[in-house]
Amino acid sequence: MKRRKAEAVIEAVLFTMGESVEISRLADVIEEDVKTTKGILKEMEERYAREDRGITLTHFDNAVQLCTKEDMYEYLIKITKAPRKLSLTDTVLETLSIIAYKQPVTRVEVERVRGVNCDHAINKLLEYDLITELGRLDAPGRPLLFGTTEQFLRCFGVRSLEELPEMNPVQMEEFKQQAEAEAQLQLEV
Predict the structure, then answer these.
(1) Element (H, E) at 67
(2) pTM (two decimals)
């Protein structure tokens, strides 16, 4: 397949899918190897960035998605209703942080770190598609395992979990002590 035709096919697939597509699957569609496909994607990404275009390619681990450029959002809002804003309370954000850094993790493990029940926070994170069920732990009761989603990466502007900032062990211990103190206060009330 000629290079321009391959670009058009990739663009059509990404536009139609509306979500990320694994690069290996795109390679299969255009009948090229992954290395060549990555080269084509790089050229497309550079052209989108160089030209005054409203779209861009966003990478997530081994997948890519066709997205609207951030500076176009104000124009989109003019034609549609304002997008639903995620409301992440401190509790929900703390729960999300624990899941992001410890995944795959069970609800009980999250509650052990936080020192309080996390049902509401986990349900909110599932509703917002920031976490997902990854399966079940091979242990008594077969508890669900949770991990972050591609939507999490998108919302926090990272391409992979490796881009998350390193946690300071001293700070983590302080957080744990604060959570335990909060849990003790709640028990006393």
Answers:
(1) strand 63-68
(2) 0.55
pLDDT at 189 over 60: no
Which value, in Å, is the radius of gyration of the alpha carbons in the chain? Answer: 21
Residue type, 25: R
Closest C-alpha to 39, from 68, 64, 15, 70? 64
3-state secondary structure of 4: helix
Mean pLDDT of 27-55: 90
Contacts of the segment 88-97: beta carbons below 8 A, 24+ positions apart = 88/128, 89/121, 91/118, 91/120, 91/121, 92/121, 92/124, 92/125, 94/121, 95/121, 95/122, 95/125, 96/121, 96/125, 96/130, 96/131, 96/148, 96/152
List phi, psi (to 5°) of 21: -130, 135
Confidence (pLDDT) at 172: 65
pLDDT tens string 142-179:
899 999 998 898 888 888 888 887 777 776 677 666 65
